[in-house]
Amino acid sequence: MTFVDVVGFTLEKIHVGVVAWLLDTRQDVVSLEQRRQLLHRLSEKSEADRIRSITAHREFAPSGRRKRIDLVLEMALNGGAVEWLVVEFKTDSEFDVDQLTKSWEAVDSSMPGRALTPISFCLGASQAMLYPPQRGKLNVEYEAFDLKRTRGAFGDLIVSSQRHIYSDWIQSLDEEIRRVEHIEENILEIGGFFAEPHQHMWKRKGYRPGIPLFFLVYDRLRGYLNQLDPTHTWCIYSGRNNPVMNLDDSWTEPSANEFGAQLCLELNWDRLVLKAQIKNASDVAVRTLRERGIELGQSLAVAGRPATRRPAKEYISIFSWQLPLANQSLRDCAAYALQIIDRVQPELHKLVGF
Questions:
Q1: pTM over cut 0.70
Q2: From CA 69, how far away is CA 75, in angstroms rounded?
Q3: pLDDT at 256
């Protein structure tokens, strides 16, 4: 067992601390030449060959900004120039390109020198949210490092002292990579997600049950969906209380009715759900939308059920179909989901045409 296992892989400060320790030239553990090579792998725009020293600032707050940045690297170059590299870390929490961009802007506007393209390490279930790349509200480039890319960047360092810190961390990355790679066979072995015995078995194998586990399931399922029908775009993110894999191209255009309802299809947990985004909808409009959606769902030769009726908010669920994720191959589940989507998606625009 590594120290990362003892403290917990999902604690982002562990990864921040190890990366800062490996890169900061005040720590006599890695040669300057290795650090230059590593910085070049992390940021091709860095003048890494000219680096004289690197100072790692953890929990960094630029002047005038209250929110702290996980890690900022200050690189002094030969000749007196300075480069800054903004680094954010995620394990199981949602990757947020806007957060990364705002961190970069804060450093770029307040620190002397040049701010390089910001980077984010997504070292757990958060890597499922990297693809397709988020555009974000702010148009700034970024570099994203998933587990394998991070392992490749850091995996060949010669650490001169306290090597166990480095080797434990690399081992923890390898173990997380193995968990991702073996997710499908473990689904079939365990045979469930929600019951306490199933959750106990997932934990024994090192997984984090709940939303993080489903991000890994969705990521693998999305691969099969893309193989079977590459015309669709699937986006994985966190809802308020559930994991989401949204069919991005299923959204209807705002209709010409008084509240501009939009419909979409997405996965929540193990169900494919027909959802509506409503704004300032009357009770009559919401009821009509539900009735039409339920009628469409029940017209298919595929078993499904109306969603539980809840007070109307911005989003409502209308109808859902369960995917047999726990007892069939994910490829078969992907084919089953596409069978439903091919029937439902062409009809969505009709439902909002009041």
A1: yes
A2: 17
A3: 52
